[in-house]
Amino acid sequence: MSPILLTQTDLIIASSVVVLDAVVSVWLGLRLHKQVLVAAVRCAVQLTLVGYILRYVFAIDTPALTLGLILVMVAIAGREVAARPEKKLARYGNQIAGLSAVALATFVTATFALATALRPHPWYTARYAIPLAGIMLGNALNAASLSLDALLSGVMRERSAIEAQLALGVRFRDATKPLIRAAVRRGILPIINVMSAAGIVTLPGIMTGQILAGLSPIEAVKYQILLMFLLAGATGIAAVGAAYFAMARLTDGRERLRVDQLRSS
Amino acid sequence: MRLIAQSLTGPAGGPFDFSLNAGEAMAITGPSGAGKSVLLRMIADLDPHGGDVMLDGVERAAFTAPDWRRRVAYLAAEPGWWHDETAAHFPDRARAVALMPSLALDAALLDQPVHRLSTGERMRLALIRTLLNDPPVLLLDEPTGALDPRATGLVEAILSERLRAGSALLIVTHDMEQAARLGARRYHLEAGRLTPQ
Lengths: 265, 197
What we know:
The structure holds 2 protein chains of 2 kinds.
Chain A: H1 8-14, H2 16-28, H3 33-60, H4 63-83, E1 87-89, H5 93-118, H6 126-157, H7 159-167, H8 172-175, H9 177-197, H10 205-212, H11 217-249, E2 262-264
Antiparallel strand pairs in A: 1-2
Helix pairs in contact in A: 2-3, 4-5, 4-6, 5-6, 5-11, 6-9, 6-11, 9-11, 10-11
Chain B: E1 3-10, E2 13-20, E3 25-29, H1 36-43, E4 50-55, E5 58-59, H2 65-71, E6 72-75, H3 93-99, H4 119-131, E7 137-141, H5 149-164, E8 168-172, H6 176-181, E9 185-190, E10 193-196
Parallel strand pairs in B: 3-8, 3-9, 6-7, 7-8
Antiparallel strand pairs in B: 1-2, 1-4, 4-5, 9-10
């Protein structure tokens, strides 16, 4: 079965339901109509742009360009992770922790998938590497920012409990373990929810897209399962990475709790 | 000398130089915010600072940080708790139970959740927690601030006993008579300077 190709007219017709949202907003006085329309236009422009960029990159398909594009995506994701928490670490700590966490999660899981399940020739083919890295990044970003936020807000709350233990000669890593655990848990929970609800509560977007694009449901499901597993891995790495990288900035060689490294934004 | 502090400098001011023999006590008074707690935290190596501290002639750098803090034990004015159950803070329950009557604490308190304990009970239990490490140096930040006269007397009795056994004591207090009862040298901390009284 070949995919049903969409025309510009199809999309223009589809946009009428977005206009419906705007009408609802005016009608109920939500004051969201401008935001809805701007968001819809942004969505269309950004995705079209990405489509052309991807077509160009896929056509050229050089490892340097592929890597370059992925690095730009990683940098943007790292910045997003850093910006999310209310508290900020000094000396670009949030940025470093966020960037390291999403980069590690993405490179490990994407390379793993390219080397085992997908195996395109060559393994760094842009057509596979870029979308894979993108979806890993999106989820790693989510997990890392939840984890980082939980850690940084928890550290101030638990300060006296941690310092009471340090004063008794407990090692820093033992005194802060409950906090690390809580942060990693916050980061990982969403993917557990998504995995257990998959197919029952929701038809995952990728699978839906593939089925609409003409792939057999069984093949689409296999892809979805592969991606879910990879995402679970990326989420775990990102959550653990963000928590540990940030915690490393909150101590020093004498195992102190350095809350002076933390600022409220 | 049990404890020697050499040109300690930090947010509390300084440089601070003083020393304590085994069995000797030092009481620090001063207005709130003068940095009395910060001074104790510097000695326990909980905050970054300049200067050095020696324990029984050994430099602090020779100890790992946890080893140092187990020996030079700081007890905050409002000590933290990290479990819901009180007993979970006392790995050696038998030794804790053995100390509790001397501070007029019922052993059954260990089976209460921490949030049910009164401020005074928490303070005395936190002191026991610290004493169980048998630290040669005690840095206590207003350990009797929340206690009635009777409990204060019991805490002072335990501290005197530790002093006789050779511990050194550095205590922050607002109570001049307490310093006298403990036989402590008195110092006043204000505007970053420590002056003998």
